[in-house]
Every structure is written in C-alpha cells, then in structure tokens.
Amino acid sequence: MTPANRQKNAAEALAWSSRFLEAADHLAGAGLHDRAVSQVYYAVFHGVRALLFTLGIEPRTHRGLRSLFRQHFVKTGELPDGDALLLDRLAQEREDADYVVSYQMDAGEYATWRAQAEAMLERIRERIDAPDQG
After folding, report:
1. Which of the four CATH numbers 3.40.50.300, 3.40.309.10, 1.20.120.330, 3.40.50.880 does domain 3-129 have?
2. pTM to 2 decimal places
C-alpha cells in the first residue's frame, strides 16, 4: 500500500464509519436498538480499519483487526486500553444482536454504546489527523 493509498483507504474507511453511525441512528429512531448496536460496532470497526490503513495494514478478519489494533495503537499507548475493551464488547453485542433470538436492547443501553463509540471515533479521527500522519 503506497502512502497515497494509505490516506485514501483511511479516508474511505472513515466515511464508511460515519455512514454506519447514521444508519444506527435511523434504526434507533425507529426503536430498533438491537439492530442499531450492530451498526455502531461496524462504525467503530471501520474507524479502526482507517487507523490500520494509515500504517499500511489491511486486516483480513474481525479478530485480526482487534489484535492489530491492540498491537499497534493500544500497547503503544497511543490510544487507551478502554478502546480495545470497547471494540471487544461491541463485537460481542453485534454477535448477540445478530444471532441470539432473545437479544434485546433498550434506548438507554443503545445511547450508552453510541456515546462511547462516538468518543472512541473522535480519538481515532484525532490520531489520523495528527501532524505526524502525513
């Protein structure tokens, strides 16, 4: 991946991230909080992909993405440990929402996940926009 491709791929992944958050908000507005939290996970997933793209890394799996995120951004201290935990917890919520028939989520729970995801995505955007990321 060339430096130009890194930035292009990162920008595209961030755009996807924003679209997933918009989709989550539409679903939550319709009262479909279980569906919405799945979209919140994908918003964070694509935000993390954007970060990894800035290093020229393209993860092949969801688990690989989480591992690479920890290795390159959490263990280095660039992003807090809580971000890795949030990513893991959202991944589990997504799986439960997608596959557990009895899964339920209310508006308050969704709002908490959404707020935590937005804060993490803001840290990701700041990291990507940092002067050393040219």
Report:
1. 1.20.120.330
2. 0.94
